[in-house]
Hints:
This is Sialate O-acetylesterase. The chain is of the alpha+beta class.
Amino acid sequence: xxxxxxxxxxxxxxxxxxxxxxxxxxxxxxxxxxxxxxxxxxxxxxxxxxxxxxxxxxxxxxxxxxxxxxxxxxxxxxxxxxxxxxxxxxxxxxxxxxxxxxxxxxxxxxxxxxxxxxxxxxxxxxxxxxxxxxxxxxxxxxxxxxxxxxxxxxxxxxxxxxxxxxxxxxxxxxxxxxxxxxxxxxxxxxxxxxxxxxxxxxxxxxxxxxxxxxxxxxxxxxxxxxxxxxxxxxxxxxxxxxxxxxxxxxxxxxxxxxxxxxxxxxxxxxxxxxxxxxxxxxxxxxxxxxxxxxxxxxxxxxxxxxxxxxxxxxxxxxxxxxxxxxxxxxxxxxxxxxxxxxxxxxxxxxxxxxxxxxxxxxxxxxxxxxxxxxxxxxxxxxxxxxxxxxxxxxxxxxxxxxxxxxxxxxxxxxxxxxxxxxxxxxxxxxxxxxxxxxxxxxxxxxxxxxxxxxxxxxxxxxxxxxxxxxxxxxxxxxxxxxxxxxxxxxxxxxxxxxxxxxxxxxxxxxxxxxxxxxxxxxxxxxxxxxxxxxxxxxxxxxxxxxxxxxxxxxxxxxxxxxxxxxxxxxxxxxxxxxxxxxxxxxxxxxxxxxxxxxxxxxxxxxxxxxxxxxxxxxxxxxxxxxxxxxxxx
Length: 633
């Protein structure tokens, strides 16, 4: 009887103890199946619940508990845990499976960070064939913006890097994460929070920007002082965006079949001369008739359509081209072709600037058994006959603080290793304020996360646009300089990619080198490895007669040229003389010699100073020398 009473008492105690943590709690969207948490650091967990009720968190043998605050919020912290998994995360009665502990990075910026692996990235097919890596997971924060700080992201879920999901991941972040996993042997989580075309001030707290001087100050103050008005304006704009996206996403199938049919009467449509003219707007429909002598082995060559397009042949959907992709040469099924007259119809949309464009010279034709049939010349087109105008959608996300409030603030309780960043193109026209803006954003993020000076690694702008031998007024060169100056902040690192851009594409397809160069910076900045991570950097400069002698650091085993027998990319000038190219040569492993023009006593020397400079100076790791400008006398 005595033992029975003791057992009964223990059961009562156990029952009371278990019920203490039965209350319902909600978690932010970041906490879900497949998540990765940061190793070797205090891990924060937070959410909402019933005030006064208890909440307990357990993971990998560690347990913590607390009480929900009067405002219904709670936050708890677990001690440092080593890498591993999979584990089960338990928060009261909630169980989250497939949780790993490893390294977590935020991947921020604009379209070059957002650029998906499936979008013609060099080497992507090899990655797809390899099948991904179950220890790498991505969380894509949906594009969103807000005039007020949000406590959760609007959507998103953790996705394992398998053969299906991998195609949608940021290419730069994937190649970075892959190296992290391979070299550190730990799971890796990437939180993608990026948006194409966006300026740095959109990713920075408007309250901070409102106190600064710059082109952004007036807007920042307006957002802060007229918050309610902006909330209403954003709500209306978001409604317009949803309507636009619904109109754009899929054409009515019956309408499309009718408009794309050979029998459709387009006599009331206007004429357009492609690719020279571009009066297209909204949801533009264009048609072109052509004649075939055979229906066998017919291919369509039309690689350039900006941005999205539905391509029809004789009323049948032939191909859908998404944004960020090119239209590869298409084999047209013979069963939808006719001997004689056929019609090619394109439904084109550009949600970026509402001006779709189709084709480029010498790149618009059909191949009929190897013979070219040009598609250049007169087409019929309609901007509004088939479908109505698209509603106007403003880019309010570009405004100070808007993306910061919706896409950064909700992440700041989540413990991370650091951030990788690729942005600057949208600020190049205001390069003079970028150093201050960018440094402010980095400091803002670090203070918001409260993790101290976490590693912040960024990409310097690639070479881009028409190549000019001398371009002293290049906005992109000045922006690159501002990025270099940001390295004055502690625990920052910069990947220079002045050698792998593309003249005609702001989105260079070599993302592998970008991700791997960022990883080199991570090894030094985040993991404190003593390794060579950058291309040659100017250490000192002095004059010797009519020559300039530049001493470099970060040369590794020595300077070398990727091509030719002379160093390319140097220009000199002064206030009285325009800049001009000068000859330069490697003297030894750390030294370059430049020959100055006759009579130049004082001036400025610049290297790789253009939108798209031709350069060839690297170190033994083939990392390019960093752009710079220095005055001399």
